[in-house]
Amino acid sequence: MASRATGLAVPNARLPGLDGRRALGVWAAPGPVALVLRRAYARDAVTPVLWAARSEPLLWRQPLAGSITLFFAAHSLVFYSVVNWYATCGLARGVPAATAGYHLLVYKEVAKLAPGRF
User: Fold this and answer.
1) Which residues does 106 contact at the CB level (< 8 Å), separation at least 6?
2) Checking CA distances to 61, which of 12, 40, 69, 77 falls within 20 to 30 Å?
3) Which residues, in sequence order, are CB contacts of 52 under 8 Å at separation 6+?
């Protein structure tokens, strides 16, 4: 949803009666709907006991857990750096705002289809 919101923000802002804030505000509607549906689902679900007495050590005391955390942090840093700066760099090079948004939309959609490759 977020990739679609960023890719369609400029074209939606050009629609009659919408400005930039309202064009992005349209995408806030699915959140409360999902929250209501989640609460209805959670009411019917059985909650298991998660923290019973454990014989093995905590996960965060394992060295591998810290390494995996750092790897995913670096992976996220690269992805979000591209996401945050691409449109700005495109605008600086003369790419129209709507086209830069579409490029970002395509990048995010392709990144969702092939995780770990971009």
Assistant:
1) 7
2) 77
3) none
d(C-alpha 49, C-alpha 22), whole Å: 43
Tell me which residue of 2, 6, 11, 5 sits closest to 88, measured CA to CA: 6
Domain that holds residue 9: 2-113
Domain assignment of residue 90, yes or no: yes
Does residue 94 lie within any of the structural domains? Answer: yes
Cα–Cα dist 99/11, whole Å: 9
**What stretch of H or E contains 31?**
helix 30-44
118 lies in a domain? no
Per this entry, what is the length of the chain?
A: 118
The count of domains in the chain is 1
Each residue's pLDDT tens digit, 78-101: 888 888 888 888 889 999 988 888
The 10s digit of each residue's pLDDT in 55-79 is 666 777 788 888 898 998 988 888 8
Amino acid at 28: A
Residues in contact with 66: Cβ distance below 8 Å, sequence separation at least 6, in sequence order: 60
Cα–Cα dist 114/6, whole Å: 19
